[in-house]
Write a structure and sequence with these properties.
The radius of gyration is 16 Å and the shape is globular. It has helices at 21-32, 83-92, and strands spanning 15-17, 35-40, 44-49, 52-57, 76-79, 96-103, 108-114, 120-126. The strands form two sheets. It has a four-stranded mixed β-sheet with strand order 1-4-3-2, covered by helices on one side. Strands 5-8-7-6 form a four-stranded mixed β-sheet, covered by helices on one side. Helix content is 15%, strand content 33%.
């Protein structure tokens, strides 16, 4: 497949809608550490985090921002090197924390936060390689 510098190279790229793309980009880069790669007018931007990507879009083309007061319909999981340091930085920068860092039986340490538009974010750090069968899961072949 040819490379196209106009789109993220990630196999899966979430597109999240915000009332104001510029405000969202500024917030996501300052609070969560994303890097802006491409800006398309005032209605779309492409951000990166490690080898992942995110598109921030306005409410055109049938999209709308989430209702902050309703149950979550999605979350975006982002792998970080040090979840506790990321948590401290996000908290200090004003992120709304939904759950503090916790270690889980499946080998991940995670915390959850909401951004300025109400999107849910889960930040995760692998701390152990645990077989799914050890915590009640099962492996499906092929993995």
């Amino acid at each position: 497949m040819p490379r196209n510098r106009s789109v993220p190279s990630s196999s899966v790229t979430p597109v999240l809608t915000y009332p104001n793309v510029g405000d969202a980009v500024a917030w996501l880069t300052r609070v969560f550490g994303f890097v802006e790669h491409v800006r398309i007018g005032d209605h779309r931007a492409q951000l990166g985090f490690g080898d992942g990507a995110l598109i921030v879009a306005d409410a055109s083309q049938g999209r709308r921002s989430p209702d902050v007061d309703t149950a979550a319909t999605h979350s975006v999981m982002v792998r970080v090197d040090d979840v506790d340091a990321h948590y401290r930085n996000a908290l200090a920068a004003g992120a709304r924390i939904l759950s503090e860092p916790a270690t889980h039986s499946y080998g991940e340490r995670q915390y959850a936060a909401a951004d300025l538009a109400g999107h849910r974010w889960m930040f995760t750090q692998s701390i152990a390689d645990v077989a799914p069968e050890e915590w009640g899961g099962s492996t499906v072949d092929p993995w």
